[in-house]
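Colleagues,

For the teaching module next term, I've prepared a clean inverse folding example: a structure given as tokens, and then the sequence designed for it. I'd like students to try predicting residues themselves before seeing the answer, so please don't circulate the second half yet.
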């Protein structure tokens, strides 16, 4: 059973203001929760393997490989751009630099 002083201490750590009515309410509610946790501790789970997810989940990813681009396709794309500088496509700046 959790005490009213412990609830006050927890509230202070959490920077919560509670009146005496709320302190009484939370003392009862937290006591029920802690009692339930103590009851769960009695269950033997030694034969159950630990899990991080209830379902078998496998991350499906592809190999990260370099693909060689076709120079004629790159040149065509750069030529189609509205603004360009040498072999690059010019875009509007998205960040403002202050000096």
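(Answer key — instructors only)
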């Amino acid at each position: 059973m959790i005490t009213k002083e412990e609830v006050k201490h927890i509230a202070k750590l959490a920077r919560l203001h509670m009146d005496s009515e709320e302190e009484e309410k939370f003392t009862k509610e937290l006591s029920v929760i802690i009692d339930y946790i103590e009851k769960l501790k009695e269950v033997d789970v030694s034969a159950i393997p630990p899990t991080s997810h209830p379902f078998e989940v496998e991350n499906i990813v592809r190999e990260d490989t370099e693909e060689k681009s076709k120079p004629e396709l790159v040149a065509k794309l750069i030529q189609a751009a509205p603004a360009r500088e040498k072999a690059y496509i010019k875009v509007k700046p998205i960040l403002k630099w202050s000096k």
